[in-house]
Amino acid sequence: GPGSACLSAPRSGSGRHCGTDMASRLLVRSALRALSRGAVRGPGAARAVSGGGIPTDEEQATGLERRVMKALEKGKDPYSILKPPHYAGTREDPHIVPSINKKRIVGCICEEDNTSVIWFWLHEGEPQRCPSCGAHYKLVPHELPH
To answer: The pTM is what?
Structure first.
């Protein structure tokens, strides 16, 4: 009847195949084709490439990730990934703002729980004050790492 379980052979006289049986045969055929073409390697082949074991992050890193890792080993932070150092914001210890230009727009949240931002232009040279709270900011040249 219509609610009976499907077997791997077609139902007698119906000409229909079970959906799960067809899917499993298709999956097996695809896997056999991939193996015959060499598209799938066993776990031993991957280990042989790395020389034994799982490669470390340093061995596996390429491109930008590798450049960042090398710079961090030397104590540099060329892409400003790390949290910036804390400054007092006084004239003697101003907040340092790196820039590749001679001026940059800066936003100051004057009080910790304030929801508004005071925006102002910061120019290269002497430290400047936020027009609202008086915190000091200094623009310093920043070279791009590339």
So the answer is: 0.51
